Amino acid sequence: MKQYHLFALLSMFFAGLTAVLAKLGLKNVSGDTGLAVRTVFVFIFVWLNIFAFNPLKDFSKLTIKDVLFLAISALTTSLSWIFYYKAIKIGNVSEVALIDKASILITIILSILFLKEPISWKIATGCFLILGGLWILTSK
Length: 140
Hints:
Blueprint: H1 3-25, H2 31-53, H3 64-90, H4 93-101, H5 103-114, H6 121-138
Helix pairs in contact: 2-3, 3-4
């Protein structure tokens, strides 16, 4: 198994836990309040990770272009989280998470267009299956 596959599997596992734990934490508060509290902890844990596993000199390698793309990514992440928390507050977390994970379709399309990543028959087939599943989930 490649190292990035292991990291991706760990990401998948923790993302699955995240949705359920977040829904439990939103019992008495709005999605916005829950997200604000969660984000404080994310900030702390990410900085602890930096201090524990990454040299601070790594920051000197950042270019203005890198920072700009990371800032735009932060904006889109924030918007994604805001709408995700609003959705799980009022909806079934299992449905919301499935729809949210269909964002892989957008990721694949953009990675082909902007990052020039190749598309294989496996990726194309997977995209159509995800799209079909999304249609089944959202149809009445």
